[in-house]
From TrEMBL:
Species this protein is from: Pseudoramibacter alactolyticus ATCC 23263
Domain of life: Bacteria
Annotated InterPro entries: DUF2344
Lineage, opening ranks: Bacteria, Bacillati, Bacillota, Clostridia, Eubacteriales
Protein name, per record: Radical SAM-linked protein
Pfam families: DUF2344
Residues covered by the DUF2344 domain: 14-182
Length: 244
């Protein structure tokens, strides 16, 4: 059983990069968080816990992954009660975690770690849509779609009221490629003040705009290829240096 040490004197943040495969793509964010906590405990990793009656491991993720999405580039932070070699941390976790979640890189952070959420710059996605489509028609539709200054969606605000929101400023790049009976969209979305647009919303708006007949979003495959951050790790005495 892992001892719940609440002392903050020797706490250190371990930042890690991980991937989620197809076998766990229907995992919810809360279920994924629980899976990480269980794997950390099984691996004997010295987790730091919050204070209070309902103490929980100090852990955070850069982005909540939508149900149905796979990824090669997710990031998380977990606070430890003592220093741990990043390579040992990776090995211990991966040996304790079933197939589908795997940590690929880790960095021990000296001092207070910069917020992952605030550091996200943009993200790149691959959205696969089954079916036979006309390449010229799709390319023409994408070009016309991106020429719009306003691409509005309806969404609920914090008060529960529907409002119009222009998602065009969040779309940096959109491409389309047809391979056999599959249409593959490449999408890059921008984060503005820690806010972005869901990739499914972009493709749904394109489908509505051009009437491409893309079918239901439930049949699409969504993969996050890259999560670009405003800082980069420099391994120099385990220090984490922000990108200028």
């Amino acid at each position: 059983m892992v001892e719940r040490n609440h002392s903050q004197q020797n706490e250190i943040t371990m930042r890690f990069k991980f991937r989620r495969g197809a076998s766990l793509r229907f995992l919810s964010h809360l279920d994924q968080q629980s899976a990480f906590q269980r794997a950390f405990r099984r691996a004997g990793i010295p987790l730091a816990y919050s204070r209070g009656f309902h103490a929980h491991p100090k852990m955070a993720f850069a982005q909540a992954m939508p149900v149905g999405m796979t990824s090669d580039c997710e990031y998380g932070d977990v606070v430890l009660t003592q220093t741990m070699d990043p390579d040992i941390f990776i090995q211990a976790f991966n040996q304790s975690m079933p197939a589908g979640l795997m940590i690929t890189e880790a960095w021990a952070m000296n001092g207070k770690a910069p917020s992952l959420t605030a550091a996200i710059k943009d993200a790149e996605y691959c959205i696969t849509v089954p079916g036979a489509f006309s390449a010229p028609a799709v390319e023409e539709a994408v070009e016309a779609f991106l020429k719009q200054m306003y691409i509005n969606i309806r969404k609920r605000n914090k008060r529960g009221k529907y409002i119009e929101k222009n998602i065009r400023p969040f779309i940096e790049k959109l491409t389309a490629d047809i391979r056999a009976d599959t249409l593959i969209f490449g999408l890059q979305t921008k984060f503005i003040d820690q806010v972005t647009v869901k990739p499914v919303q972009v493709i749904e708006q394109l489908n509505q705009f051009a009437v491409l007949g893309l079918g239901s979003a439930l049949d699409w495959r969504l993969h996050r290829c890259t999560l670009n951050l405003n800082w980069t790790p420099e391994i120099d005495g385990n220090e984490y240096v922000e990108k200028m």
